[in-house]
Amino acid sequence: MPDLISRLVQVHVFRKKTSGIHEYLLLLRSRSDPQYPGMWQVVTGTIDGKESALEAAKREVQEETGLAPLRIEIIPYVASFYNPAADSIELVPVFAFEAHPSSVVRLSEEHEKYQWLSYESAISRLKIQAHKTALEILEKTMLKKE
């Protein structure tokens, strides 16, 4: 039977414009990256050693974007997928980080480009269903109240 493992995090970074509209940060993976080259995605990464999922999420956002969160939310969704190489089911906690509207993004070598996008534009660019599902929950249930 496959093991249940949680080694990864997914983080949706957003900002609220003065107009009240939310924009979402998407990152374009480097074309030289062997896994998903040239694909738009949210911040993702591995939980290292004994760090918590939240600690990993904060570190990954800092490493991949240089941003510090104004606010952190847990999206009530756990992404999952089967990893045939490890015969494991991966469970991925999902977070939302609010960035200051004037924050400057500093990309790591993992990504070549970034864009702040409307919900509709972000959904259409994302290819991984778990990223789309979490973004929909964030936009339509969590941020709709604001």
Provide a compact summary of the structure.
By secondary structure, the protein is an alpha+beta fold. It contains 3 helices and 8 strands; from the N terminus they run βββββαβββαα. The chain has one domain (3-142): Alpha-Beta Complex (Nucleoside Triphosphate Pyrophosphohydrolase), CATH 3.90.79.
Describe the structure.
The chain has 146 residues and is an alpha+beta fold. The protein has one domain: Nucleoside Triphosphate Pyrophosphohydrolase (Alpha-Beta Complex), CATH 3.90.79.10. Helices cover 23% and strands 39% of the residues. It has 3 helices and 8 strands; from the N terminus they run βββββαβββαα. Strands 1, 2, 3, 4, 5, 6, 7 and 8 form an 8-stranded mixed β-sheet that branches. Strand 2 (8-16) and strand 3 (22-29) form a beta hairpin. The longest helix is centred in the last third of the chain and has 14 residues, at 129-142. The mean pLDDT is 94.
Average of per-residue pLDDT values? 94
The CATH topology annotation reads as: Nucleoside Triphosphate Pyrophosphohydrolase
Order of helices and strands: EEEEEHEEEHH
What would you call the shape?
Answer: globular
Number of beta strands:
8
As a percent range, the share of strand residues is 35-45%
Instruction: Note the main sheet.
Output: 8 strands, mixed
Supply the number of structural domains.
Answer: 1
The proportion of residues forming helix, as a percent range, comes to 10-25%
CATH class: Alpha Beta
Number of helices: 3
CATH superfamily: Nucleoside Triphosphate Pyrophosphohydrolase
Uncertain ranges: none
CATH architecture group name: Alpha-Beta Complex
Distance between the termini: 44 Å
Structural Rg: 15 Å
Structural class: alpha+beta
